[in-house]
Amino acid sequence: MNKIIVFAGLCLIILLAQCSIGNKGITIPSEPYEQLSEYNFFTGKLSDLTPAEGVLPYELITPLFSDYAHKARFVWMPEGTSATYDTDHVLDFPKGAVLIKNFYYNHDERDLSKDRRIMETRLLINRGEEWDAYGYIWNDEQTEATFELVGDIKDVVWINEEGEEQEVSYIIPNKNQCKSCHAYKNKQMPIGPKARNLNKDFAFADGTMNQLEKWQQVGYLKGLSSSLEAPSVADWTDSERYNIHDRSLAYLDVNCGHCHNPDGAANTSGLTLLAHSDTDLKLGIYKPTVSAGAGTGGFTYSIIPGNPDESIMIYRMSSDNPGAMMPEVGRRLVHDEGVELIADWIAAMDPDDFETPLDDSAN
Amino acid sequence: MKIYHLITLLMIAGVLSFQSCKEASTALTAENITQELQKKLITAQAGDKIMLPAGTFEFKRSISLNDTPDISIIGAGKGKTTLSFKNQIEGAEGLLIKNVNGLTLEGFTVVDSKGDAIKIQGCTNVIMRDLETTWSTGKLSTNGAYGLYPVSSTNVLMEECEASFAMDAGIYVGQSTNVVVRNNYVHDNVAGLEIENTINGEVYKNVAKNNTGGMMIFDMPDLPQANGDRIKFYDNLMENNNGENFAPKGMVVSTIPPGTGMFVMSHSNIDIHDNIIKGHNSVSIAVNSWLFTGIPFKSEEFDPYSTNVHIHDNEIITGTGPVDNSTDFGKLMTGVLGKPYDIIVDGIFKPGSEQANGKPTSYCITDNGDVSFVNLNAGKSTDPAEMVKNLEYDISIFDCSLPIFDTKEHDAWIASN
Fold first, then answer.
1. Considering only CA atoms, which of B216, B191, B212 is closest in space to residue B203?
2. Best residue in B20, B61, B148, B245 to probe A by mutation, most A CBs within 10 Å?
3. Tell me: the pLDDT tens digits for A211-225?
4. ipTM exceeds 0.85
5. Which residues of B126-149 are buried (b: 16+ CB within 10 A; e: fewer)?
6. Is the pLDDT of residue B180 over 50?
7. Do the beta carbons of residue A239 and residue A160 sit within 8 Å?
8. Cα dist. A215→A57, A126, A198 in Å?
9. DSSP count for chain A of H helices, then E strands
10. Residue A324: how many other CB atoms lie within 10 Å
């Protein structure tokens, strides 16, 4: 009899532990909730993405291109915890911190009153040693998003700012693919929230403020005395404030540098694409390929100063062939504006400024 | 009695919740593999054996496995279980496996992936057995680059595999340590089999036919594993590797002349013996330094010279030509040499490796029968008009022997498998 009661009690504990009982606050389970709404990150109608108390929206100065999807980003941290400032790397987030990223398309970029379609919400949860990544796919009714390990492919149509109808088979990544971008020294990590990419003003519900200062104000950031001492990357679209070199490196940093760094998944290529990279061979200048496969497009060097048309970097950014394109995952469309920026940057390089490779007549 | 009802209810609830929250581990079948294989690899636990059913299955996306140790993926045999990526719309590989300690892949075919067929990165204790990679499209420059592609991995055994129609290398072992590649068959690729920047390797009893070049040992500059070292290459058959070079221009392999048996470039400590190399219309064995390519490099650690290369006791029967005239190197050979050679060296030796009598110690070439040999002396000039005056044909200066190195570090691991 006693054994039966103990066993029954055990069952009850399992029941309680596995299927957490809803309450209004935010608690982060050890295993992902089945539905996005269970986290209570948002109040009111879920698809409005109105943040609950303690959930703070943020933007990046220069974001990763994801097939023209918009991203609504939020951060949440357990009460009483805060991230520690880091000049170069991703901020040192406390255990339990969550980054919430919602990917959506506006039906008509010229008329935002025509609503939007949210495709997926990705959660990055800091477990201490490493971050867990969970994907939630939104239903067509836009009432809920459901946990999914293996991602999905969904066709989406929208009208761009020029009034042209666009379409893409939007790919929601699987759990393994998260790590193909989100890895640093083989551990799953966020990419975006580095001080240099957060150091900008944002229109919060209670007024505009520098994001780093806002994080300090709400207790989400310590170790920084003033946003003025933090670096900031160039806004890749802002040609008035930043020169083309800085905008290009900012673009490459965010779109490529998460793999193309000395500790990243693409270190086997020998190419390093970071905001502070020197303009030399490791950035691709006259760099021959190692294992680019179809990615060379028949060209010899990653970047030929003054000659974007024969630079492999432009070829791979302009390709939508999965075997040739860069980045390898996370897009199916060509980012025309990004290609234009990098092509203009390469075109503006003066070949006389660079050491040219040896005469290759011996080949 | 009521307490018993309650207890029973709680028990049922507990058991049900336990079952419903744990994903039921169903076997892969021909009906569910397309949906379930990726999920199974994501949820795999250490020690899992994932069995693939027989049949041909289409995948639209790359299949990936990360981090979970001791995983086996086993099919019904190559040609019996086929993973087809003909309609792939995402991912640069067919199968991509990263950071797995203890990996066995066995008994399946990967066909028509958009990029590399099977890429294994940063893994340890890897067995690849009875696998096939191929492209059904024939020799196209748009095929994937590599068939079987372990890179930055430690302890790799590859055996009984077949790789064909890769537009770079059918088998490509890159930047790895402790590697055994044996009893594999590579055909109709650009490079049949390539060992690159790899340390401690044995490559034996493999067959390479109808590739552009049969077997390559390369070191490439500016890579994390800067230099390869200690590779034994023996009992292999290279035959009629006279296929067109269909690699896109810009890739290093696009410079391999059709009709190349074996190509050594800038690698060190290589023992090449008891191979049969026959029917190649350009060159049976070429040994070069990286400097010969004229391609610049930055790494100070990189050793661009081929040093301590010992080529002995091979059976060499070179083809009758014509020598390739489609690649730059082929044109150079056609223009300067005019006929195929058994052994060609570029003659760019590591500075300081010459002996007092002027003999370079970089290479020893002995007991390969009556071979035709030419030293291009490319260190003096790479201008064809000059080169033609600098050619040397005396193989006797390479009559020497090199200390035998051991590869016991991998022998212990191989012996345990």
1. B216
2. B61
3. 999 999 999 999 988
4. no
5. bbbbbbbbbbeeebebebbbbbbb
6. yes
7. no
8. 10, 17, 10
9. 7, 16
10. 24
